[in-house]
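Archive transcription. Copying these from loose printouts into the bound notebook so they stop getting lost. Printout 1 of 2:
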Amino acid sequence: MRLVIDLHACQQAGSGASGGALMLVQQLIRTAGENTLLVALSNQFPQQLMALRAAFAPWLPAERIVVYDTPAPDGSACLAAAIVLIRDNAIANLDPDLVFRPDGIEQPGTLGTLTPHDAKPRAVGHTDDTAALWQTFTQAIPASRSAPLPNGLPPLAYVAAPGEVDMALVAQLARHYRVVLIGSAQLHALADGAPAITLRDGCWFEQHGAAFARIVYQVGNRPAGSFMPALCARHPGLVLLDDVHLGQLFDDAGPNAFGAALLASHGYQALLARQRSGHAEALRQFPTGWPLLEQACGVVVRSEAMRELGCHWYGAAGDRWRVLAGTDDASLPPLLEAIETYSMHSPRARYRALTATLGALGLPHDPRSPLLLEVAKAIAANQPSQAPRQLLVDISALAESDLKTGIQRVVRSIVLALIKTPPPGFRVEPVYGNGGERRYRYARRFTCNMLGETSLARDDLLEDLPVEHRPGDIFLGLDLVAHCTMQNRALLADMRHHGIAVYFVVYDLLPLLMPQAFPYGTDRYFREYLGAIAELGDGLVCISRAVADELCDWLVQHRAPAAAPLRIGYFHMGADLASSAPSFGLPGNAAKVLDAVAARPTLLMVGTLEPRKGHVQALAAFELLWARGVDVNLVLVGKAGWLVDRLVRQMARHPELHRRLFWLPGASDEMLGKLYASASGLLAASVGEGFGLPLIESAQHGLAIVARNLTVFREIGGEHAYYFDGEQPQQLAAALDHWLELFRNGKAPPSGAMPWLSWAQSAEQLLDTILQQRWHRTLPGI
């Protein structure tokens, strides 16, 4: 059985997260056996939601704890009645056999009420025997949930493309319905001799379709049916599929219509497959009917093989398809039952009935009315989705301005790897936010541009629509967008309340550990940000074990009390430039720089110029070496950051500039690759890092490494780097002198055997942490 336990009364009475009702529900969850049990909670009591989720978490998956939305009551009888209708609609959309509502306040002799499917509620007598209570539930299940066959001849619209209508089936249906056949003049000859059938064209149906409670769309894979997706979106009905592959419906509808349908049906991975194999092969390989099928009240197919294809391509949505064995008398009753069930009891049908009933309550009719907007928002939030689970990847900063360096290089590389190999059962959806508690949006245009689908990105068919999330989705804060995240605290908390797991990637704690290296006030702002994501997140994933340990230490001292535990994990970043959408082009002085690199030993520093990176100490150390006659180059790759104006001026007038000192602020990945391949060693002089990606990139090219003796550099480099201590120029100059001697004698530690990950492996590590729950440490709830 499918049992829904609605705890609204308990929440309203303040006993939702404690007392006998909670213990009863926990016991029912533990003893559910093969029964499917869902707990339904109201969004009107947000302060209880995380505690309730934590109370049920040991036994119930997060997606089975469903939070439904209703408008906040205002004391009016009209809105109170609307709230009950909206709540009942939300519960009905969970498709329960039974709904059990425990009493909010203990009543003598009763536990609550029990409502079988489409029946009236009845009291449940008090018992301490959970097995006896399950027996009561079992006995209350209706013998059948099938809709009765139609009485009389109710009207039915049958929509089919010219030349595709199954007239044998239509003739059978005409014995039970007043069939209105929707199509073109080509159908008239087919309809001769069928007196119960009325012919209308698509324009007529466009205007009058809302009057039909029963609509059947017969859909095949021919261009003539290209009008049906839009028509079904306006007037949803039962879809009778002649073919699972529906690419031809979209291929002739416009230059990018098939691409948009391919994206909607199978995600970005399918667009990449089309790039590899070509348009014709994508048409053959991928069923692309989701823009039509997601609008349908239900789907009926012609064979079990078609249903299996639906399961393969559309998961749980295909599993709900029904099979029509034929059009003879024996096969017709299942189709009639499907028409009646989907037309009268599907979510679409309930939505139509709900809006009609609400319209008679006296609610405002002005679409600008705040109350009407709240009602509409709640109804929309409660509508079920058949789409696959989503991995919502926040790329807000990247989508706004792709600088192709630093954190944005990591974000771009990870999201590309996730798109190419999405986790099983998930659709990867890059998203972005603008703050201000405005909903996140799908980053479809940016992502298509990033994947090379520039024509599709420009097409009006593709929109950055607001995100539609559902229980079981995952939100991954991959980008560092502190302002947006903090402005969206209420929005992210609401997502978590509704069963969306929320995780954030933490790159470092440097603004807190060395505030002097950042603009004034950064430490305060970053402290607020860390506190926010610790409050909002189910888990925080760091880019190294060193950062994870630093974060745990900080949170133990500063984390605010929280009902749920907070998990801390880590992963390592990748290094394959080719998989990170690399930039190309060489600067005008590339030949001169590369000639100098070939002429003498060269140390390469990679990263934005900022105080913590050690550029000042490095330049001073090289000045000491040059003064002693050591012939060596220093090459800096990275744009100017903050608090480095003095350093920039010093380099601009330095006598060694363009001789043995080179600064390339806008070097492409192509140029950087050439420097990695030709330099003598990498100098990683930073006094604080979250990871140290240049070490990995150097190892990939076999470039020797001179690194400061930091915990994170030891974690990454191990025995494959030369380490130095001290923050004075003389100390670094002495270390470089020693390393150069080792280098000349072939004894400098080689980096070639250093283990490193591709970006695909890095993304896999990240997913392994959040999907397989492999955490480094867990901070308990309070």
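Printout 2 of 2:
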Amino acid sequence: METECVTYDFLKIEKKWQNFWAEDRTFRAIDFDSRPKYYVLDMFPYPSGEGLHIGHPEGYTATDIVGRYKKAQGYNVLHPMGWDAFGLPAEQHAIATGVHPAINTKANINNFRKQLKKLGLGLDWDREVDTTDPNYYGWTQWIFLQLFKNGLAYVDEYPVWWCEALGTVLSNEEVINGRSERGNYPVERKKLRQWVLRITAYADELLEGLKELDWPDSTKRQQIAWIGRSEGLDIYFDLVDYPNEHLVTFTTTVETLFGASYIVMAPEHPILAKLVKPEYAKEIADYIAQAAKKSDLNRTDLAKDKTGVFTGSYVINPINNKKIPIWVADYVLISYGTGVVMGVPGHDERDYEFALKYHLPIEAVLTEDLKNPNPVVPFFGKGYLINSGEFNGLSSEKAKEKITEFLQKRHRGHLAVNYKLRDWLFSRQRYWGEPFPVIWVDEEDYEKVKKTSHSSISEMMPKEAVTYDLEGKTYFALPLSTEQLPQILPIVESYQPSGAGESPLAGAEGWLHVYLNILTGEVIPAKGQIPEGSEWVHGHRETNTMPQWAGSCWYYLRYCDPINKDSFIDPKLEKYWGTPDLYIGGAEHAVLHLLYARFWHRVLYKLGLLTTPEPFSKVVHQGLILGEPEHRLFKDAQGNLVSAEFIKDDVDIRSGEVLESTKLDDNEVVKKGEIFVLKDNPAIQVESRSFKMSKSRGNTVSPDAIIEEYGADALRLYEMFLGPLEAMKPWNTKGIEGVARFLKRVWREYIDEEGKVSSKISDSLEESLETEKVLQETIKKVTDDIESLRFNTAISQMMIFLNHLGKINSFTKRTAKTFLQLLAPFAPHIAEELWVRLGEKPSISNVPWPKYDPSKLVQGDVNLIFQVNGKMRAEKVISKNATKEEVLNYAKEHPRIIPYLEGKEITNVIYVPGKILNIVVK
């Protein structure tokens, strides 16, 4: 061990213990250990060039606390880390610099790893994975082939977001208001050949599986909405100009069919061009071009103004044979339903707004009261049918049943289930991604392969061929044999996309064209004449690459068996480790990552390759950490100050005047209760808000800088102390000083000025009754709070306990050690150091977790609520016999109450024995 510190030299202490954990492999998970297993997982980061930001340590610290706690409880803990390292930023860096993305990515990973180790996380670094490592993505390719073999992967032309400046396809999430999230370049809809995964085949299973998961309700609701299952009717509207053809609409409100006064088609509908009359052609062409620049979210925004153009064509309403017009409007999406919607303006808000704008008929066919001769229009509820022929007077529910029967008997409609969920576009026109393990051949060679192929090729061939057409020729997809995996990314001369919708791989001629031996599965570059023998065929590789989502769909499995060369996971290890018991990550991944991973996992489960149907049984989202509060002062046109209480969105709500604002420094404002006011004029309230951290706003905070000034333990404690884990919280660098002082006080309680163990720590075997009581309360509170992830209140209780130690003359060594055990998951470096100073062997994380003794808690204790000005600020277990004065003193010393009393005058104290203490301050 290094020379002991006299003072609390946190940088030296933290480096010392980080080195010890690495050399000792303290947090190594042991396969097939006899202890019960516990698998705790973080959503792994993308290693960007900017390094970690201050939000990363929040989730990582939370999982580390749980992992260390479970280890002390006797569990074999698996807490791994890895890198989601494929992605567009690395590719853009390569385009700009000419440096291979792997070089930049490796440098970023090294920086991230170094930063994570500075946080003192108890990670098993032996299990580190990197999605760009061929030993990893070879198995990603293998899993893709399972999807391919089972008919869950196909090729089609899809309208996708194309960014000319970036030269690539972007996902919906990468497009904001018609521009790329990265670079803010314009984007447009463009049809390109895409690999697509048939996730819709699992829509019902993905919905049903949510019921058994311990996930936030909001996350479940988002997935349910994203899948968007609805039961209804497909209705056929005959085209007036084409008697043998019809448009199909999907509806869940067939009872309103008599009120359908127009039809709306999506701008991308394949037969739209056929229906447009010449006099409307230019207007519709311009309209389609504008729609191609809008996101689906923007197009379907209920608040936005509805737009559309008449096609000049008509359909026949099958319920009443009325001729109604066909319009095109961008609020209809080709990706939902049939891309055709019937407009019922009397009973749908969106249709009503559209009909008003374009002077289309609005007729009431539902009423709340049959006796009312003037029914309300529009009416959006359930009611009874009117103006609906033989169905008049029926309730909405009964009418739905009868009209459905009517249409089915006449073959004008059939029951249908519809989903908002679309099949997953699974390809990108980029270089930096997993290559598809596919060779394209012509039809003649494909038939040859079907008859005489190598076993691992034939085993992976789907029943229905996957094809695409190019320049009048059809190509067929062949899987690579498993012996040819991983298919390595080639070196290319340029990372610049072709500009024609193909990735840079299209220019890698020596890699692109190959000869395939259909008997052995061998693939060689196509140089010169095809080798002799009928077993060789000519083909070309797929030039698209997989999206970044691919590697993150299954990484949690690879952590269990990270270096296996024979399987993506050993079945015995999969059965032993199972899936993560706790998964913590950002709420921004509530839908796509979690949904995609669930899909892949279910496919592998149904193929008998996994033993569980779901990947993540318990998910928790840490809240966003915002930048430090920003203060703004407002003035009107005459230069008069306007108090923020009269302002909303920079507008004076009294006059409607748009105000000018200036940013204030912290020293120009002062806190007054729950608000901030101008220091020089306390009558003027200033706006105080925290924003999401971003480089453009200049409010980012580096964890490295915080660690250098306050230490990793202080950073860990402060991020957990800010508030509930799931809550959104503003960062305040000044606030960390409080927990830094707490750690210094811990040090002073244990170590004297000469660097020796404090004389307050006695060798007595008996602890005082009062100290024993507070200790047992603390054991119980910290244990319960870690179990329920209430880390902030656990820290509050430890602060209360430390306050108690500061008031007494001595406490036992047993008490000193127990407190360090409770502190260790939160501030592991100082706990390890003091543990060794007390004469114990490292590591403290190997020592069994303390159990509280209920017999040592005074009977009749109650949980008392502390309020300030009527708002709950803290709570504490105290004796129900405590006097008002004793309770008030407890409150004044509570770390969560102190900030609300500083500089304030107490005007009244209201005490309800055993329940509430309310302190009233000016």
